[in-house]
Amino acid sequence: MATPHAVVIPYPAQGHVIPILELAQWLVQQGVRVTFVNTDFNHERVTSNWLDKDSFGDLMQMVSISDGLEPRDDRSDIYKLTLSIMQTMPHKLEELIETINKEDSSKVSCVIADDCMGWAIRVAKKMGIRTAAFWPASVATLASFLSFQKLIDDGIINEKGEFKLIKITIFTTLCNKNYIRYKL
Fold it and tell me: What element of type H or E holds 51?
């Protein structure tokens, strides 16, 4: 049986790269081959600070593809960065996977992408490759995002994203009832 080979792709922002890199390193420790795909801009920053690179042998490969922005462009403009990523990186990722599958004895068997890089999941599915989305933030944040539609459906948030004041009842062992008003 061939060694599993995962392509792992973080969103190129603070708080996204290190958690998924730690996942990639754990996968390598389990014997999974990993190709970690950074943007060109982040690649040098990540690889120059990566202390354990020699301990993974040939199971961990760090590669980069363009995010579509020029080196001088401001990557703190999340809208501009995300738009450029969505226009540039899907085709580049597809080319990278095709190259890996032609040249490597270990074909790509899975793409693990930061949830903010949903386009990577679509590319992998189009190519018939299994996928997994990775959420780097807290589970409370994920639960909040997943609850937005319910909050809208229940009328707690309107179509403009405005919250309405609601009355809630809190029962505790210390007091019978307290009515409080709060803004969600």
Answer: none
To 10 degrees, the CA torsion angle through 88, 42, 133, 85? -20
Q: Strands 166-170, 130-134: parallel, antiparallel or unpaired by DSSP?
A: unpaired
Report pLDDT for 124. 97
Q: Is the pLDDT of residue 145 over 90?
A: no
Q: Torsion angle, CA of 164/165/167/172, rounded to 10 degrees? A: 110
- For residue 116, the tally of other CB atoms under 10 A from its CB is 21
Angle between helix axes 17-29 and 40-48 (nearest 10 degrees) is 60
The Cα 53–Cα 110 span in angstroms is 22
Q: Which of 92, 87, 88, 94 is nearest to 127 (CA)?
A: 94
Of residues 36 and 172, the one with the higher pLDDT is 36
Q: What phi and psi, each to the nearest 5 degrees, are found at residue 151?
A: -60, -35
- The structure's pTM equals 0.76
- What rounded mean pLDDT belongs to the chain? 82
Q: Which pLDDT value is given to residue 107?
A: 93
How far is 109 from 99, CA to CA, in rounded Å? 14
Catalytic residues: 16, 114
What's the order of all strands across the beta sheet hosting 130-134?
A: 60-65, 33-39, 5-9, 110-114, 130-134
Q: Which of 44-53, 91-100, 155-164 has the lowest mean pLDDT?
A: 44-53
